[in-house]
Task: inverse folding
């Protein structure tokens, strides 16, 4: 009190100044109230800001100081949490797809960003200042708030800028002066970074577009953010472009309710007023519609790294086509049946994926002239045959081997990886699926042969060799010691010794003469491994050929007057191909895979650009040249004649004494001056451990091609000769030669080991001839060569280049669409998104480049008719340029764009289309939503009124017709007639039932009557069948049927014949029930066993059985518990049962206590004195005060530590109470002394 009294007069003598807590939590001030009001307007001070002035005990929020709050309140619309006020014309609205936007009713301005007038103090505080993207090792990019800028054109404290003043531009000017930024990043603290940095709008972060091209920010940071946040909401698919031909799919690693038949039909026949989300079904449906409407082949190219979900996406696409298109011959089911077979023989568990496809697959689904599936064809590419004989740690070989072998750890080819079981994979169940699939594909005559050959492959690995004691021409020989017989048996070789000889000798042919040379044990093991790989590789090719035979059939055009024969054999091709691979150790397989992805990426970029260029040329629209990465130089380095590295590898394989070192030397001599080549050998160890340059890491070593309509110019990129990607970097422990290629996705270092061997894939001629001539297996994998054997065996790289060229020829002739599959994390966990890894994958997939190409032009385009129909409502309906039907569509579009020119930026009117960019698209959609808000309710009211009137008329008609049918005896007992009446009534009501869910009561009544009629018909069949059987065995069935008859007896009476049949069943049931129930009922009555009597009563009710004993039991069970117990006690005395007598007497006492026990309660006992009377008996009570007397009276029934002054009970009341209590023992028996001794002994 003294403190406050002293402060008050002092505070009145000084100027009012306040200290406040700044946004960075530092103390600021003192400032006058006028300055505080200015800071309040700028958002530097909010109602939650802590302030203090002389005279206040502690820091307090402004909202808790009414006087200060009133001085700051003349701010319009800054009510905490307010959505809109009378002084703030902003209104929050939502689009059709749920996006929040804001509309200013005064200025008619539209925006997705929340206006400052509607923001709370917390939101103003958070949104204040500029925000930028900051690099992060873990998350790749994180948004950060700029606290301070030094240098450039932004010196000073960025946080002092007005809220909402930050730019949403995603590009950073190349000419911007150097800056140093102090940036606050949530969870990372404050960082000082060199600028400029890409800017970001907080409002843009909250808008997760289903199409990346719609994003305001073009940076890869915003694109990754959008994909990541959608993934966290289980929205795993995202479009790239309005054409919906590029889809990004993120593996959810869990089952999501995004598929199924209903979803397929939703995408096949989308509702006109419903926006469907991105989905593989939409990709497949778009391809199917283009095939039907335009008559052009389609290609769906699915790519991604192992574990990204390519196989599952392929299944979804094929399932959609099978369901929607169908076929007359059920061929679509055979196509789906091929999946289990191909997965068993071509998929394996890897470190990244439990079901990784180790081969590429191109499947063509052919359609007839009616759009139904007619046939299919599968082509396989580059099966990883080395996995048959060796696997990395924690990986498995192909699934089929684990289907066939119970103890893989005992098999040489399978035991080294240490992984035999996989969580979520049931090898036994999957094997049964494979058998059923092979059977449905027509493999029945040779069903076991593929399995035997697969077992034979494993048994080859279990063959052991030892050195021979003899030498031939100085060469060490070898002999087979174990495992030969089983290997020969499964391979179909009758004479095991022939297999032994072929494994332990090498055939050398000189001028047609063959000479056998002995092999060392090591060479024999290598030959066995080569045989195993050759058998399995050819077995897989044979399976694909057989599947093609099963899913192909001759084409029939159907209609005789069908003119376009070519359109009757159009196809949709689905490519499931391995993605770009950068491993710790990269070899020949990775080079082939990355070469494939280079070719496909070139097709992707060129098609995307070509599609844009052709559209602009057709529409007569000028466009700026689009820069995109052209990877032709790296492709030339790999495949171009005469010195492409794969061509040089083929030459080295066929050259005498060719080896990996010579091949690498030739490659370095040919390509050492090229930017795409970097050789790393032991003498170049100075390069080991060097870090990647930004250019090489981003694929910057590829040339940049600027394409115009007239010419193509090439600009050389920066050199990356001294660096290579850390993903493929080598370590000092590695031995041998290395070389690095700068691919579009990054630099990859390859280890030059066994390239020649893998490219040649050697199999001795004697082993080939053994399998061709001596194998009795029904599956012929090795055709006899005879004397027509080619002098030069084709190489793996040569065959693969040929296959790839044929594939690209097919793809180039089709209209492509793409699915880029992304693996969100390496742990295979759902809702875990590793941003850094996903940035690499999106880069490898070319998504960033595709967005750049599309967004640099006009990604949104609508035909004149569609544009006018969609946005015509934005113009005055009486405008003659719109309302006049004689005006052409292009003129209507021109009128719309002129009317809206103050809202729109750059809109191009082409020959057949209107083209515009994302900002214009957003504005048009927001304006359309506003217009629909006004028009739709009016249209809905009119439509509902008309529908309601029509429904009322139809409802009256339906009810009258049904009532006439139900009241007509000649019709209401006819089930078929009732079916027709119900069906006709529902057809009349038709789609009105969706709007008016009311069901006429006559429909329910007719349905109930129809059910009863059908029930009677069903019971007639059952009754007849039961009466023909032995009735004792049908007791339960008879009882159930009689109960069903009772349930409907009062609804619809049966015919005389039906009732007579029912009576016979009831009589039969009564006979059987009597034999089962009566003996038990008599026994229950004799001993008065209540539980047994209840059982008899329940069974009699269930069997609808009645008798004297059953009736008597029901009467006894109807007695009170006390009366029934007395009867039981009497019966026990009659039967002289001492145990039961004691039990029943105890039961009677218990029942008495349950009935009258409340009379013995302390609080309710009737024998107590009145508490006032009890208190008055205290000596010298007259000396007590009134309150003390009352306290003594209330303590009458409370425990006291001292003796009480008199008894609590009144003798007279006790006597009266005793007369009210019933006797607890009412028996008519006399208990003898002997009986009591027995009781005492048993009680003890």
Result:
């Amino acid at each position: 009190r003294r403190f406050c009294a002293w402060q008050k007069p002092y505070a009145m003598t000084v100027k009012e100044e306040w200290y406040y807590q700044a946004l960075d939590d530092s103390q600021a001030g003192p400032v006058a109230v006028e300055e505080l009001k200015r800071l309040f307007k700028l958002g530097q001070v909010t109602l939650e800001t802590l302030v203090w002035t002389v005279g206040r005990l502690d820091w307090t929020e402004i909202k808790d100081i009414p006087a200060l709050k009133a001085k700051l309140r003349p701010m319009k619309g800054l009510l905490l949490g307010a959505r809109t006020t009378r002084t703030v014309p902003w209104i929050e609205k939502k689009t059709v797809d749920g996006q929040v936007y804001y509309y200013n009713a005064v200025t008619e301005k539209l925006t997705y960003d929340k206006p400052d007038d509607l923001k709370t103090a917390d939101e103003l505080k958070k949104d204040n200042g500029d925000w930028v993207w900051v690099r992060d090792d873990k998350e790749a990019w994180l948004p950060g708030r700029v606290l301070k800028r030094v240098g450039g054109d932004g010196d000073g404290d960025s946080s002092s800028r007005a809220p909402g003043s930050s730019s949403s531009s995603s590009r950073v000017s190349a000419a911007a002066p150097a800056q140093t930024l102090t940036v606050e990043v949530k969870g990372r603290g404050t960082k000082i970074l060199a600028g400029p940095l890409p800017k970001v709008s907080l409002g843009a972060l909250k808008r997760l577009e289903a199409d990346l091209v719609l994003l305001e920010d073009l940076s890869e940071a915003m694109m990754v953010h959008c994909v990541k946040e959608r993934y966290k909401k289980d929205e795993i698919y995202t479009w790239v472009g309005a054409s919906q031909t590029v889809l990004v799919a993120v593996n959810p690693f869990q089952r999501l309710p995004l598929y199924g038949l209903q979803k397929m039909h939703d995408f096949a026949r989308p509702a006109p007023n419903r926006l469907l989300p991105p989905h593989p079904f939409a990709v497949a449906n778009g391809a199917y519609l283009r095939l039907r409407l335009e008559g052009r082949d389609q290609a769906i190219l699915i790519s991604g790294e192992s574990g990204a979900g390519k196989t599952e996406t392929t299944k979804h696409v094929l399932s959609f086509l099978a369901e929607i298109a169908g076929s007359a011959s059920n061929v679509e089911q055979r196509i789906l049946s091929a999946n289990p077979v191909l997965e068993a023989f071509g998929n394996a568990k890897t470190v990244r994926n439990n079901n990784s496809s180790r081969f590429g697959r191109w499947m063509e689904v052919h359609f007839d002239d009616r759009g139904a599936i007619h046939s299919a064809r599968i082509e396989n590419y580059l099966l990883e045959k080395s996995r048959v004989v060796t696997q990395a740690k924690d990986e498995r070989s192909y699934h089929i081997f684990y289907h066939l072998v119970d103890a893989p750890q005992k098999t040489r080819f399978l035991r080294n990886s240490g992984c035999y079981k996989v969580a979520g994979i049931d090898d036994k169940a999957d094997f049964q699926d494979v058998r059923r699939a092979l059977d449905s594909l027509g493999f029945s005559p040779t069903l076991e042969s593929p399995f035997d050959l697969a077992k034979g492959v494993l048994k080859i690995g279990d063959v052991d060799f030892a050195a021979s004691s003899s030498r031939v021409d100085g060469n060490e020989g070898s002999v087979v010691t174990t495992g030969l017989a089983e290997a020969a048996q499964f391979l179909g070789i009758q004479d095991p010794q022939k297999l032994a000889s072929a494994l332990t000798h090498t055939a050398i042919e000189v001028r047609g003469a063959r000479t056998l040379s002995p092999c060392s044990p090591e060479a024999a093991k290598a030959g066995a491994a080569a045989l195993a790989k050759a058998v399995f590789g050819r077995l897989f090719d044979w399976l694909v050929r057989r599947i093609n035979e099963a899913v192909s059939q001759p084409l029939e055009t159907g209609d005789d007057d069908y003119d376009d024969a070519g359109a009757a054999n159009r196809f949709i091709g689905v490519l499931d191909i391995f993605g770009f691979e950068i491993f710790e150790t990269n070899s020949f397989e990775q080079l082939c895979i990355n070469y494939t992805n280079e070719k496909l990426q070139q097709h992707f970029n060129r098609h995307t650009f070509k599609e844009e260029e052709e559209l602009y040329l057709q529409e007569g629209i000028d466009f700026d040249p689009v820069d995109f990465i052209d990877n032709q130089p790296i492709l030339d380095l790999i495949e171009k004649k005469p010195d492409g590295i794969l061509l040089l590898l083929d030459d080295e394989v066929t050259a005498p004494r060719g080896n990996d070192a010579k091949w690498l030397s030739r490659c370095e001599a040919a390509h050492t001056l090229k930017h795409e080549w970097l050789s790393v050998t032991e003498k170049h160890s100075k390069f080991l451990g060097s870090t990647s340059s930004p250019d090489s890491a981003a694929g910057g070593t590829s040339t940049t091609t600027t394409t115009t309509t007239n010419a193509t110019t090439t600009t050389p990129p920066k050199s990356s000769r001294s660096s290579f990607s850390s993903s493929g970097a080598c370590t000092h422990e590695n031995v041998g030669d290395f070389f690095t290629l700068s691919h579009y996705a990054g630099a990859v270092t390859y280890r030059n080991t066994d390239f020649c061997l893998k490219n040649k894939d050697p199999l001795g001629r004697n082993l080939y001839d053994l399998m061709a001539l001596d194998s009795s297996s029904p599956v012929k994998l090795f055709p006899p060569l005879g004397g027509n054997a080619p002098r030069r065996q084709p190489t793996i790289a040569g065959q693969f280049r040929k296959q790839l060229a044929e594939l690209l020829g097919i793809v180039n002739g089709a209209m492509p669409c793409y699915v880029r599959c992304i693996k969100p994390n390496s742990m295979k966990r759902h809702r875990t998104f590793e941003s850094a890894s996903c940035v690499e994958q999106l880069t490898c997939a070319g998504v960033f480049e595709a967005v750049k190409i599309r967004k640099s032009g006009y990604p949104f385009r609508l035909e004149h008719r569609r544009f006018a129909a969609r946005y015509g409502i934005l113009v005055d309906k009486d405008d003659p340029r719109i309302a006049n039907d004689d005006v052409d569509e292009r003129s209507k579009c021109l009128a719309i764009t002129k009317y809206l020119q103050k809202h729109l930026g750059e809109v191009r009117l082409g020959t057949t289309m209107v083209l515009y960019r994302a900002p214009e698209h957003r504005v048009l959609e927001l304006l359309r939503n506003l217009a629909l808000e006004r028009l739709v309710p009016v249209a809905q009211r009119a439509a509902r009124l008309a529908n309601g009137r029509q429904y009322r008329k139809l409802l009256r008609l339906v009810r009258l017709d049904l009532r006439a049918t139900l009241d007509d005896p000649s019709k209401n007992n006819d089930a078929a007639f009732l079916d027709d009446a119900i069906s006709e009534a529902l057809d009349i009501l038709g789609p009105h039932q969706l709007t008016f869910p009311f069901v006429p009561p006559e429909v329910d009544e007719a349905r109930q009557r129809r059910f009863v009629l059908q029930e009677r018909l069903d019971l007639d069949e059952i009754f007849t069948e039961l009466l023909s059987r032995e009735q004792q065995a049908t007791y339960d069935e008879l009882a159930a049927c009689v109960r069903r008859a009772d349930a409907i007896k009062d609804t619809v009476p049966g015919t005389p014949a039906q009732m007579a049949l029912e009576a016979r069943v009831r009589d039969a049931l009564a006979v059987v029930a009597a034999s089962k129930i009566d003996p038990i009922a008599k026994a229950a009555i004799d001993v008065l066993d209540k539980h047994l009597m209840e059982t008899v009563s329940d069974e009699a009710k269930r069997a609808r059985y009645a008798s004297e004993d059953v009736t008597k039991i029901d009467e006894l069970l109807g007695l009170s518990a006390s009366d029934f117990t007395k009867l039981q006690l009497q019966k026990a005395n009659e039967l002289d049962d001492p145990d039961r007598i004691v039990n029943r007497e105890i039961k009677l006492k218990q029942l008495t206590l349950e009935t009258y026990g409340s009379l013995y309660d302390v609080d309710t006992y009737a024998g107590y004195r009145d508490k006032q009377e009890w208190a008055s008996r205290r000596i010298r009570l007259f000396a007590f005060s009134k309150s003390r007397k009352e306290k003594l009276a209330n303590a009458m029934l409370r425990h006291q530590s001292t003796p009480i002054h008199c008894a609590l009970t009144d003798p007279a009341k006790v006597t009266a109470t005793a007369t009210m209590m019933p006797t607890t023992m009412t028996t008519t028996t006399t208990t003898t002394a002997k009986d009591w001794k027995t009781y005492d002994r048993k009680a003890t």
About this structure: Residues 138 and 399 are 35 Å apart (CA to CA). The mean pLDDT is 80. The two ends are 80 Å apart (CA to CA).
